[in-house]
Amino acid sequence: MTASPAAFSEITTATAADALYLAKNLLPADRDELVAGYGVDPVVVLPKAIASSAGSYWCLQIGYRAAAIAAIENDGLIWMLSSVIASDHPVILARQAKRFLADRRPSKLWNWADLRNRAHLRLISWLGFHFGQVVPFGPRRLPFIYFEKCFTPPH
């Protein structure tokens, strides 16, 4: 018995094509968070970010399509954007996100999340991040919440 293509998942290095596909198929809540927090168009910004290789970007492929793209910047800033494919496979997304974090452990990971994006907040909490203060954020000054996860170095 073979697995269905939709059940296949892997983490790969993100490409500009992955970024463009994801940008055009973002979950509405993720698109809203990106626009509210940073005032940018994902169709323009994501492919440029990947092409510039300013950071390391990873893509979760589900069924051979970009379901999510994530990055950890040098200062520990972490982010992830998801497509409608990821929302159809929340268990795969959560498990792969946990694997992704297990392989990359700087001393601290952090970012801000839109309080309206309940799916992200649930995933962030499930992954063991702690929430901090809520502040008006971005060009629209909507409430965003700080989150972080600190790692202790191995002895």
Structural summary, described in words:
This protein has about 160 residues and is α+β, with helices and mostly antiparallel strands. The chain has a single domain, classed as Gcn5-related N-acetyltransferase (GNAT) (Aminopeptidase), CATH 3.40.630.30. Helices cover about 40% and strands about 30% of the residues. It is built from 6 helices and 7 strands, in the order βαααβββααβαββ. The protein has a 4-stranded antiparallel beta sheet with strand order 1-2-3-4, with helices on both faces. Strands 5-7-6 form a 3-stranded antiparallel beta sheet. Helix 1 runs antiparallel to helix 3. It is globular. The protein starts with 8 loop residues before the first strand and ends in a 5-residue tail after the last strand.
User: What is the CATH class name?
Assistant: Alpha Beta
Q: How would the global form be characterised?
A: globular
Main beta-sheet annotation: 4 strands, antiparallel
CATH architecture: 3-Layer(aba) Sandwich
Low-confidence stretches: none
Estimate the mean pLDDT confidence: 87
Name the CATH superfamily classification. Answer: Gcn5-related N-acetyltransferase (GNAT)
Q: Could you tell me the radius of gyration in angstroms?
A: 15 Å
- Class by helix and strand content? alpha+beta
By CATH, the topology is Aminopeptidase
The H/E string reads EHHHEEEHHEHEE
Portion in beta strands: 25-35%
Helical proportion? 25-40%
Number of domains: 1
Number of helices in the DSSP assignment: 6
